[in-house]
Amino acid sequence: MIFNKNTARKTAEVLLQVNAIKLSPKAPFTWASGWKSPIYCDNRIILSFPPIRNYVRETMAKQIEKQYGKPDAIAGVATGAIGIGMLVAEYLGLPFIYVRPNAKGHGRKNQIEGFIESGQNVVVVEDLISTGKSSLNAVSALREAGVNVKGMIAIFSYGFDIATENFEKENVFLQTLGNYESLLDQALKTKYITESELETLSEWNSNPSEWNGI
Asked: What is the 3-state secondary structure (H, E, C) of 10-70?
C-alpha cells in the first residue's frame, strides 16, 4: 500500500524525471526472468541526484517513525537498497545492516552483514517490489537469525497480485512511496505516454508473465 496519493504522485514525478523508471510500450525491455516488459525500473539512479535521494530518504524515514517509532536498526536488501537504506538509517541515527541473497561462500559466510542481535527490531528497506520473492528472502534470513521484522518500506511497487499474496502469506506489512497505478496517472498527465500506450501498459500489468508486447 502507498503512504498517500500525494507522495505517490511526487515519487512518480521524480522517478520519471531522472529516468529511474523508463516506459517503452513500443519497444519492450526483457527482464532477467525472461519476461517482456514495457517498463524498466532502476532506483539506484536516484543516488546520483542529491535533491531526489534526500526526498526519498526523508519521506521513508518519517514514515518509519510514524508507523513504527524507532526500530533498533534499518536493514537494506542487497544490492539495490543498500544505498538508500543506509541513508535512511543515517537520517534516523540508527544502526544499518544489509542482507545478501545468499550467505557468502567464504570468510565468515555471512548472509546478514553488520551487527544485529537476536530479539532486536528492524524495518527492512527495499528499492523495488516485483513478485516480492527476493525481498521476502531477506525477511526470512532475518527471522532465522531471531530478528523481529516490524515491516518493509520500498520506493516503488509494480502492484502485482502475486506480490500482495506473497507478503500476506509471510505476514509482512509493506508500504511503498509509489506504485504502478500512480505512475501511469502521472505519466499520462504529463504527456509522457499517450492514451493508447496507457492501455498497453495496463494490459501488461494485469498479466506480466504472459505479455509479449505489441
From this structure: HHHHHHHHCCCEEECCCCCEECCCCCEECEEECHHHHHHCHHHHHHHHHHHHHHHHHHHCC
User: 3-state class of 204 per DSSP?
Assistant: helix
Contact 7, 176 (CB under 8 A): no
Beta strands 21-23 and 39-41 are antiparallel
- pTM over cut 0.85: yes
Residue range 80-109, pLDDT digits in tens: 999 999 999 999 999 999 999 987 656 566
- The predicted-structure confidence for 105-116, as pLDDT tens digits, reads as follows 565 668 999 999
| 134 vs 163: CA distance, rounded Å | 11
Cα(78)–Cα(75) distance, integer angstroms: 9
